Amino acid sequence: SAGADREALRERVLSSLTTARDRTTLLTSCVEGPDLTAQHSPLMSPLVWDLAHIGNQEEQWLLRAVGGREAMRPEIDSLYDAFEHPRAARPSLPLLPPDEARRYAAEVRGRVMDLLAGADFRGSRLTEAGFAFGMIAQHEQQHDETMLITHQLRKGPQALIAPDPEPVPPFTGPAEVLVPGGPFTMGTSAEPWSLDNERPAHAREVAPYWIDTVPVTNGAYQAFMAEGGYDDERWWTPEGWAHVRQHGITAPLYWSRDGGQWLRRRFGVTEVVPADEPVLHVCWYEADAYARWAGRRLPTEAEWEKAARFDPATGRSRRYPWGDADPAPEHANLGQRHLRPAPAGSCPAGESPLGVRQLIGDVWEWTASDFLPYPGFEAFPYKEYSEVFFGPDHKVLRGGSFAVDAVACRGTFRNWDYPVRRQIFAGFRTARSESV
Ligand code: AVJ
Ligand code: FE
């Protein structure tokens, strides 16, 4: 019945918002006040900015836009407007101190709970199927990943702990799989909480190609390094070469050389780089250079999505590689359950019909493609989410990392960043055209 559907949707909204807030609370209570207000890198906001920004976006979209309420504290809106103040300038703003930021976010959430109790999820595109609530849960989870990036950048002792993923035997399946050419459905018009840049569904033609069964591992990447990959201009685009030379980049971010082995710093602990884990903290230029060294290339965004969604038996595009069911732990390493990617070959239950593994979770995967709108794109509900970022400056990342929550992850989800960015939880897999 309509009533039961409405109650099920209310439950889904509630659990998505609660899961996000529990994570926000963890990330902002596991360090002391000075670590919340400090800027750990000019690339990132102080943690306390993310916290109040989360509350402020929730207030603007749920209490004001959906609920028609007055602004609670109109004077703080501009402090937490990401476009008014670049990240590097945020620590010098008169930000709400940690306790006040916490109280503000909690007060907004309390009023949202009242609004949710009476919501019928109809009447406008913003409320239809709970879209605005889903958007806000995704927004909070995206900032939780941003805050986890800040934690990784932070110097000092360990503050976060999580169990490691299960070890798996070395992956012995085929190194690559052939994806048939022809059209497939890219993007979505059906997914109720999909964001504007994922829409609409449209037919996309791709030529047949091979794609790696698992993400590129640290071990494989170390072979590129050992063969002098960082010193050989042949593998790099001119921009990439200039970038690594200028910044003296010779290894992924957080790596250091110790005698005969590579170490890396990970959330306050230094460890030997595990060979079987997907490589992490490489920029687009490094991913692109590795692929050229390997005689391959990065997959285009369409190739990535076809590998992740296309079911050759039905010709249909699925929500996820494993089907249409929401992600469960056996499908993918998501949600900060672990503080690292799972070894290559993990999660056989999450593989695609063609046998491609770990497309969802573990590491964001750089693609060859610029971030561009799909045909028929319409900015919704605000241009500053996607539209202002379209163009050649940003490369698309797909699939989500171990730090992404299931609510903000699906076969159609699109992320983007500058090709120089390395602090994000990004790795890659490679591809090649069939004819080569
Ligand atoms: C989609 C991850 C690039 O963090 O800049 C958060 C998400 N947008 N608040 C970002 C976002 C507005 C966005 N990314
Ligand atoms: Fe934001």
TrEMBL record:
It holds the Pfam family FGE-sulfatase. Its cofactor is Fe(2+). Signal peptide: none annotated. It comes from the Bacteria. Catalyzes the oxidative sulfurization of hercynine (N-alpha,N-alpha,N-alpha-trimethyl-L-histidine) into hercynyl-gamma-L-glutamyl-L-cysteine sulfoxide, a step in the biosynthesis pathway of ergothioneine. PANTHER family: HERCYNINE OXYGENASE, SULFATASE MODIFYING FACTOR 1, 2. This is Hercynine oxygenase. It comes from Streptomyces pyxinicus. The gene is egtB.
